[in-house]
Specification:
- 26% of the residues lie in helices and 15% in strands.
- The chain has a 6-stranded antiparallel β-sheet with strand order 1-2-3-4-6-5, covered by helices on one side.
- The radius of gyration is 14 Å and the shape is globular.
- 36% of the residues are buried.
Length: 160
């Protein structure tokens, strides 16, 4: 299960910090875009719950597995590695867990970067903050891929 091909990201990459905490320093999401992203995360990923991140800076909203166990072989975010599949920061950027093929797509198309502590046991990539409705659609696609990786399940289609 890999995510659909992403379009290339337009414009220059945002500046990010080189160390922990790993933050996006330029090109934040407009507040209404971040609000839409948090609302989508809170309602469109069955069997999950949102809450304060266990690892990120204050204000980060995380998605946690709630009703499903972590899929066999999936490595999620520290500290537990089996519960938090991602979080959105106050600037709109996200840290999330993805399989290697999806990471490669994200990096190749300019949508994000690896976390400074990235390793086999720290499977964390940054998705740059969505700036527009079109970029919000990309964030949904990447979050959906993280969800499928974490749960081993397809997300049920949203009802109108």
């Amino acid at each position: 299960m890999t995510m659909p091909a992403l379009p290339p990201r337009t414009g220059p990459r945002p500046r990010t910090g080189p160390a922990v905490p790993h933050e996006q320093l330029t090109q934040p999401s407009p507040p209404h875009v971040r609000e839409q992203l948090v609302r989508w995360m809170s309602t469109q990923l069955p069997g999950t719950r949102t809450g304060e991140s266990e690892i990120s800076l204050p204000g980060a909203v995380a998605v946690f597995l709630d009703e499903f166990p972590c899929a066999e072989g999936a490595v999620l975010l520290p500290p537990r590695l089996d519960a938090e599949l991602g979080h959105v920061h106050v600037d709109g950027s996200l840290h999330l867990a993805l399989p290697l093929a999806d990471q490669a797509e994200l990096l190749a198309k300019g949508w994000g970067e690896r976390h400074p502590l990235y390793s086999p046991s720290v499977n964390v990539v940054m998705l740059y903050a969505p700036r527009t409705a079109e970029e919000l659609d990309v964030a949904h696609s990447v979050l959906d891929a993280s969800y499928r990786y974490a749960t081993g399940r397809e997300r049920a289609p949203a009802h109108p």
